[in-house]
Design brief:
alpha+beta; about 450 residues; six-stranded antiparallel sheet; homodimer; about 20% helix; globular; five-stranded mixed β-barrel
């Protein structure tokens, strides 16, 4: 069984912990089975491993998130990178083509597409397997999961099934309704559309060729930017007559805002924070190493990270996007394929960055025209190359690099470096890359 | 006229912006006459300069605060340092002896003691002058300022005057009462004791000799640590039969808690912060360079500094002390005689500090046994001396210092340095000082 997890958007509604390069699914809000910090991505992946240990998991995601996914899940998952954002139909088609052309999955095999952000019990993934098995049976072209609604939500699309059976044909789809209409749908037996689609690979292959002119995966990838933004529901599901839905009546939440997210976090405090005894329904997530003290608060979320500090009434936090848009700040923290970096000090003619390189990782071999740099190795071991000269380094070593000199570092262990950039015009684009000399590796 | 300003305590109730080395009176909450940021200390000093330009101002303060006072007020004020905290009687006696023995103020001259933290209009200082003039007249041994009460406060001591005249003899003093008793006092015409005392210098000189066995200022200073903690009210005022009070009926606030402090700050936002339109009666003071976003809050103060983050209901913030006591953190930011420092990164075997040296200031000439250091000059100009070798430095220069090597830096302009300390046992006490070679200055 092939599972495609759709890992979407940049998640401004969870600012300051999500930003353009770091989405909510990577933030370690949760606790894993051994009490370790766990992200949404890691949680869902762990649940899939448990329910369907033989499944092949592929993450459909933007190129910029690929590094973070590798860091959190390792090498076992496939990644179908999207050159840019183009809604769910192009993303699902691209990932399906990736499975077929790159991973050589046969056209008869079953594929299940599932969003990455449902916060659910393990039974959800048992149900997901049923959805896949139903698609494998070939009774329908497309099989969906329908969530039993718990209230007349205006946030979801609705599926109207033909019967109240566990597995039923779909009568019709309804777009996000207002609350009144949602009540009527629910009275008719409607289910929430949970964004799960299962099909035989060839089905989406055919749909993609019907709707888009392309040759193969590589060609589809090359044309991706020109594709229209269109959802899979709108492009495919709503036109498909032969479609079934499998009911799921367990707990199901999507964690898009601080309000919904904090409802699911067991611990009121993540990170260094203290609440006085008069605080009620307060959540603090603190990623900085300064303590947070909360007193006399009610229904409030406090989120602290390198990009900023949010203090918000939980309900009100849903409306944060326009304010966050106004902040216009470059991200001060990012996970990269090779580790992560954090900007820790900014002056007019200097920039100080803390860099963590994972074992075996290296930077590009590069130079800067208009800035000098100083590396202080603050922990770990590695090798530094400056103008083709190699040097073993470990905690305590200091390397100074004049503008124009080529340099790189290769981590042997986890390697932490304090980099001070010094110059009049410090700019991320002031970087010349050089061919990597194989002898260094 | 001699004015002694009592600059007290460490102000845990304004955490995180006040700490053991930085009291509330030094934080620039206010705006000066030209719109510049202004501290409580600077505000009070400016008001005194305006009301009594010829007065000599002496600040009675703990040794640890002397640097911050010099930085904010310059060289024009006298500083009477206290070796440790011993309540107001020893502090006033020490400062009075300092005036007499060190500043050679004559025994007949008038001294006015005033707390440093009243937040008042200029008329208060006009009234302060009257208190001094009344003391100068010699009608009474001691003259106080009585504040017209605005509510039956339990926080202040009360003075019961003999008459309702502007200047009256004092009938009796009352300790901090409960609200009921306070109402009765006020009905009798009682005034708040505002902590102002005016006297001829010789009066406190005599009282000090009556109560404490000592020779002179130097001897009193040497014995200071052994003195009992006792207030001036209790030791002197309450036993003095010949005492007058001058009434003050202007606005008067003491700014001891976030609740009272935020009432006086005009701007709802100090530093980088945004409030949504649903916030009511919210104050944000942000000293970090990450943005703060507040949404849907009411009656809340958010204070952000290098030592931590407070989010509190304004009333509740009065009860913060036990929580702050639990935090047990060394201060990460401090003002020193030579400038300031901020710890910006801590790892097991490294510590990164941003140091600002004021023009003309220098460090001690020193070395460390168990750590190397790297200085990256990030702005300004100065001179570095390493093992007796001088070197002019400016922004962009990097100095590496091995353990054991003697080093210092002298600032020509404001000089900012990123110092990375590297070693297995980094400890503030690992510091050997050396004689300063005069040739370097």
């Amino acid at each position: 069984m092939n599972i495609i997890l759709l890992s979407g958007g940049s998640g401004k509604r969870l600012w300051p912990l999500s930003n353009d390069v770091r989405s909510k699914q990577f933030i370690k809000f949760f606790q894993g089975e051994e009490g370790e910090a766990e992200s949404m991505l890691q949680r869902v992946y762990r649940q899939i491993q448990k329910a369907a240990p033989d499944s092949e998991v592929t993450i459909a995601t933007s190129k910029t998130q690929a590094s973070a996914i590798r860091n959190q899940l390792g090498e076992h998952v496939g990644i179908s990178p999207e050159p840019c954002r183009r809604d769910t139909f192009p993303a699902i088609a691209l990932a399906t083509l990736y499975l077929h052309d790159v991973r050589k999955v046969r056209a008869e095999e079953t594929v299940i597409v599932c969003p990455i952000d449902p916060y659910v019990e393990d039974s959800y993934f048992e149900n997901l397997k049923k959805v896949g098995e139903q698609a494998a049976s070939g009774e329908a072209s497309l099989v969906l999961m329908g969530i039993e609604p718990t209230y007349p939500s205006e946030k979801y699309g609705y599926i109207i099934p033909q019967s109240t059976e566990n597995i039923s044909r779909v009568r019709t789809f309804k777009e996000k309704p207002d609350a009144e209409t949602a009540k009527e749908y629910i009275a008719e037996g409607a289910l929430w559309n949970g964004g799960v689609f299962a099909y035989k690979l060839k089905y989406v292959l055919e749909k993609a060729h019907e709707l888009i002119d392309f040759e193969d995966y590589a060609d589809f990838y090359a044309k991706y930017e020109e594709l229209d933004k269109i959802s899979f529901d709108y492009a495919v599901a709503e036109h498909e007559p032969n479609i079934q839905v499998v009911r799921f009546d367990g707990a199901w939440k999507d964690l898009g805002t601080w309000n919904t997210l904090t409802e699911t976090i067991d611990r009121h405090v993540v990170g260094d924070a203290m609440l006085d005894e008069t605080c009620e329904n307060v959540h603090v997530i603190n990623e900085l190493d300064v303590p947070v003290l909360c007193m006399g608060l009610k229904d409030i979320v406090v989120a602290v990270g390198p990009d900023g500090i949010l203090v918000s009434d939980k309900m009100q936090s849903s409306f944060m996007k326009p304010y966050v848009d106004k902040l216009h700040r470059p991200a001060r923290y990012a996970e990269k394929s090779w580790g992560d970096f954090r900007i820790i000090d900014i002056e007019e003619d200097s920039l100080t960055i803390k860099i963590t390189l994972n074992p075996g990782e290296k930077m590009n071999y590069h130079s800067h025209e208009r800035r000098d740099e100083v590396w202080s190795i603050i922990s770990g071991e590695g090798k530094v190359i400056v103008d083709d000269m190699e040097q073993e380094v470990s905690a305590g070593d200091v390397i100074t690099m004049q503008a124009g000199c080529r340099h790189t570092v290769i981590a042997k262990t986890v390697l932490k470096i304090l980099e001070v950039q010094l110059g009049k015009e410090i700019d991320v684009h002031d970087k010349q890359k050089f061919e990597w000399e194989e002898k260094f590796i």
